[in-house]
Design goal:
By secondary structure, this protein is mainly β. Helix content is 6%, strand content 46%.
């Protein structure tokens, strides 16, 4: 047996034994870590903010939807953000993209830390929106060569419906919309994506059952056998549409066919305009809870449903400067009422200025107004029907 000179020298002075040297030289050679990770991309972002609620918020009195970067009804804790500096999100992503082969495979992981963490809680491995540490996404991607190829995501992943999503900097505003608050943020299951032709893509699959609007997440409050079926279609306008090229129309649904839970129906559109610096969009959410018992329509008095309609506008006069405007009206009853007022109706308007002065940094200033139609929800004595918010936000992406 042949040993290198450094092994013999160490053995001679007693630093290692000859037996351990033999085992080390006979051991299989390990693949260097950098070789194993050579095709993995590391990225992510850090999101920090500060907000001021203009003196009209009191503990226990309710808060404006979305003041936490999420929403109160979706399990976020907005009291941590009222008149405070906050660490909203630290997201570290690992990604191995698929190649073009018929049986390609890959994976994606998002580890989420901060007050807005959503996904699979690291504390108890259940789906939640209240943890400060979570696996936001963790899935394997597999391609099956049927037709144009079906790409399957299997594991924990972002919801497939909604105008806004879980990636902070990808949303037009700092605070989330009311529509976002009634959509589950996280799916745990298996979803396939198929491109029929250029500009037409469909998705479909099955996930764990929704735990209801009170939390807004797919979680473990239902038996493991309960499942939700998900599906969506996305259309994109081709180059031949001139100034309207790139316009999108999407629709999707999440149906829980078991013993209750939550059904969601969504439609959204984004449209460029003849003015190249202006883009507009719209969204519609319909949500229903507790509408089935053992697969049949329920007679439960809390067979609640409600809807939200939203409008968006984005003006980008320069590469660094943009103005984003959002307006929503909601008609939500019973359990869907985010403020505890009697008729569950109201509106919000949010205006955001974004100017990216520093490289890799999204910097925003935002004003938001929330209003309930009757009753009060925002002050210590519960008599104030209006809430106002000022916020500043920085997101560094890497």
């Amino acid at each position: 047996m042949k040993f290198n000179k450094w092994t013999l020298a160490l053995a001679a002075v007693g630093a290692v034994s000859m037996a351990s040297a033999v085992r080390a030289d006979e051991a299989p050679k390990l693949v260097p870590l950098n070789t194993a990770l050579s095709s993995t991309v590391i990225s992510g972002y850090v999101d920090v903010g500060a907000q001021y609620n203009l003196g009209n918020y009191g503990p226990g009195a309710g808060v404006p939807v979305g003041t936490s970067g999420g929403v109160a009804v979706a399990g976020f804790n907005p009291i941590n953000k009222v008149d405070n500096f906050t660490l909203n999100n630290v997201v570290l992503s690992l990604d191995k993209a698929q190649d073009e082969s018929p049986w390609a495979a890959g994976y994606h992981v998002d580890v989420n830390l901060g007050t807005d963490a959503v996904g699979l809680s690291l504390n108890n491995l259940t789906t939640t929106g209240t943890a400060t540490a979570a696996i936001r996404q963790g899935y394997v991607v597999l391609r099956t060569p049927l037709g144009n190829g079906i790409d399957w995501k299997i594991g924990v992943q972002d919801d497939i419906i909604g105008y806004e999503g879980n990636t902070d900097g990808a949303n037009p505003n700092y605070t989330r919309s009311i529509g976002y608050s009634v959509e589950p943020t996280t799916l745990v299951g298996m979803i396939g994506s198929y491109k029929i032709v250029d500009g037409i893509t469909i998705q479909g699959g099955i996930a764990n059952a929704t735990s209801g609007l009170a939390t807004g997440f797919f979680g473990s409050s239902f038996p493991s056998s309960d499942k939700t079926f998900v599906g969506s279609v996305a259309l994109t306008a081709p180059e031949s549409w001139g100034w309207a090229k790139g316009a999108t129309l999407s629709a999707g649904t999440l149906l829980n066919i078991d013993k209750g839970g939550q059904d969601n129906f969504y439609a959204g559109v984004t449209v460029p305009t003849p003015l190249s610096i202006l883009k507009v969009g719209g969204s519609f959410d319909l949500v229903s809870v507790n509408n089935r018992v053992d697969g049949k329509p329920s007679t439960n008095s809390k067979n609640d449903s409600g809807w939200i309609i939203g409008a968006y506008g984005a003006l980008t006069p320069t590469d660094k400067l943009s103005f984003n405007l959002r307006g929503e009206y909601y008609d939500l009853a019973g359990a869907f009422n985010p403020y505890g007022t009697t008729n569950g109706k109201g509106e919000e308007v949010t205006a955001t200025v974004q100017y990216n002065l520093w490289a890799n940094v999204i910097s925003r200033a935002e004003f938001r107004w929330d209003h309930v139609e009757t009753g009060g929800a925002f002050s210590n004595n519960g008599k104030n029907a209006d809430a106002f918010l000022l916020a500043a936000n920085l997101i560094y992406t890497f």
